[in-house]
Amino acid sequence: MAMDWLLIGLILLAIAVNIRSFVVLNQFQKQRKAMLEDAEAVHSSMEDFVANLEQENDELYNRLVEHIAQKESRMEERMRELELKIGIADSVQPADETPVAPKSKTGKQKKTVKAAEPEIDPDLPENEKIEQLHKQGFSPAQIAKVVKAERGEIELIINMYKKKQSYQK
To answer: What does the radius of gyration of the chain's CA atoms come to, in whole angstroms?
Structure first.
């Protein structure tokens, strides 16, 4: 008899464990479903965020393009005014040409070097001075000495000026 009670107890214990397993599995399924819903909500909100970010980026880009166009037009207008003011319009010739004399009888070449004085208006902003000197044919190293700036900065400004000129064509 004791054995029957023991078997009945073990069977009841097995049934209780199975019921508990079903309850735990049901809870896990509910948690998984909630996590999937949360993941979908996060994914949806991320898509909305990215779409809003792209829209703001487009708006900022358009404003930047407008701002640059306005600045360029103002700068072009100022350049035209200054060119008319100093009278160099389109007839600018390079000033740093160094003609080379033919070889003499001794075989050495003599170079005739002009002491090219830069013709710039001291009241101009630095960028315009650099552009003007570049138009006159001065090298970036020479311009750097005149305006007392770094050569890399001068080259950058000249490259930006050249790019602007290429956009205008």
So the answer is: 40
